[in-house]
Structures are given as structure tokens and as C-alpha cells.
Design a protein that fits this description.
The protein has about 240 residues and is mostly helical. It is built from 5 helices and 3 strands; from the N terminus they run ααααβαββ.
């Protein structure tokens, strides 16, 4: 394909700009700040999951304590009633014996109830301590998230400025190329994974580094200065 020397230079410049654009984007995507922020947010998600589990456990503790306290109050009332019956039974020893046995049973039940309440109170206090730890972790992670987000935003602004400069340069170079050349270059770049053009050097494609057969070299030189590599399909500038 016939091509002016200026067009060949612009074609190579366009490829360098495209590679710079790809490299700049890759560097931004791989910024440590992005990974650090993702790590902080993963920790936040873990803390929030623990907070939800703890809130559920505290709710269950609260309900269990309320139930046991209500049971203890009922047992206490039963004790008062049983004692009142004993006090008014006079010589009704049978009734006194029955209520006395009931008092002992009620006392045992209250002792067991109080023992369970003591454990629930201890668990509740422990849960409250965990809640304080979670709130402290939340505050620390929120501060870290803000710091990492600010650092990433600064990097994003810098990347945006650089991307704008490269985009303007690319638009300028692309506008200088013949439409058919630009179209071929775009298709070649898509096929070549971002590299669309190479230079024939020492009988090899400058992109895939494959040595070309003598017949292919003759054919390429016949269509110089722009051909297509028979191996990788990229555009090939034939300068030798």
C-alpha cells in the first residue's frame, strides 16, 4: 500500500500514544491505593457482619433476660402466697406440709433461675464490651476509608489529566492519517491485543518477531511501504 513518509511516522506515533494510553490505564487500575481501599472496605464489611451478628445475639439475650426475670418475679409471688397460706394455716398441718414442700421447690427454682440470670447478665456485659470494640473498629476503619478514598481521588484526578492530554494527542494524530489507513490500523490493533503495527527488520516482523519466508518478503516489498504480516496479521511497515 502506498503511504507517505509523514503518514508512516504518524502511524508509529499513534501506536506509541495508544500504548501510552493503555499503560497509563493499567497503572491506574493497579495502583496500590485501589487495593488498599478495597482491603479497608473488605474489613468494613467484615466488621458490619460481626455487628449484625452481635446485635442479633444481644436481642436474644435481652429477650431471655426478660423472660427469666418475669419467671423469677412469678416464682417470688408464688413464694409469698405459699408463705401466707402457711402463716394462716393454724393447726392444718397437712396444708402446712404441702406449702412447705412447695416453698422448697420454689426456692430451688428461683436459685436455678438466678444462676441462669447471672450467666445471662455476664454474657450481656461481655456483648456490650464487644459492641464497644466494634464501634471503635468502625470509627478507625471509617477514618482509614476517608484517607484512602482521598488518596485514590487525587490519583484519579492526575490520571484524568494525563488521559485527556493523551486523548487530544491521539485525536490529532488520527486526524492526520488517511481514513483507510486509520481503519486498517484500528482493526489491526484490535486483533493484535493493543499492538497494531510493526516494522520489518532483518526479515522479521517487528511485532511477533517471526522470520518471514523469502517469497513473503518479496511480496511485502512489492506492496511497500505498508503491508500485513502473514503470521500475526498486524500492519507491517516495510522500510528495508
Amino acid at each position: 500500500m502506498q503511504l507517505r513518509h509523514e503518514d508512516m511516522n504518524n502511524l508509529m506515533r499513534l501506536q506509541r500514544v495508544d500504548l501510552d494510553i493503555a499503560r497509563s490505564k493499567r497503572e491506574f487500575d493497579e495502583l496500590p491505593a485501589r487495593k488498599e481501599l478495597a482491603s479497608v472496605r473488605a474489613k468494613i464489611a467484615q466488621v458490619e457482619e460481626k455487628a449484625r451478628a452481635l446485635a442479633s445475639a444481644q436481642q436474644q439475650l435481652t429477650e431471655s433476660i426478660a423472660q427469666l426475670e418475669a419467671e423469677d418475679a412469678r416464682l417470688s409471688e408464688d413464694q409469698v402466697l405459699a408463705q401466707a397460706r402457711i402463716d394462716t394455716a393454724g393447726t392444718d398441718y397437712r396444708s402446712i406440709e404441702i406449702d412447705s414442700k412447695k416453698l422448697r421447690s420454689l426456692s430451688e427454682k428461683r436459685a436455678a433461675c438466678e444462676k441462669r440470670l447471672e450467666k445471662l447478665y455476664a454474657d450481656s456485659e461481655k456483648a456490650a464490651g464487644l459492641r464497644r470494640q466494634i464501634e471503635e473498629a468502625r470509627a478507625a476503619l471509617a477514618s482509614e476509608d476517608r484517607r484512602r478514598s482521598a488518596a485514590l481521588e487525587t490519583a484519579r484526578v492526575e490520571y484524568g489529566k494525563k488521559a485527556d492530554v493523551l486523548a487530544d494527542r491521539r485525536d490529532d494524530l488520527a486526524s492526520r492519517l488517511p481514513d483507510d489507513v486509520l481503519k486498517r490500523y484500528t482493526a489491526s490493533t484490535a486483533r493484535g491485543g493493543g499492538v497494531g503495527v510493526g516494522v520489518l527488520s532483518e526479515g522479521k516482523c517487528g511485532s511477533c518477531r517471526t522470520p518471514l519466508e523469502h517469497g513473503k518478503l518479496i511480496e511485502l516489498r512489492a506492496h511497500a511501504p505498508l503491508g500485513t504480516c502473514p503470521n500475526c496479521g498486524r500492519l507491517l511497515i516495510v522500510a528495508d
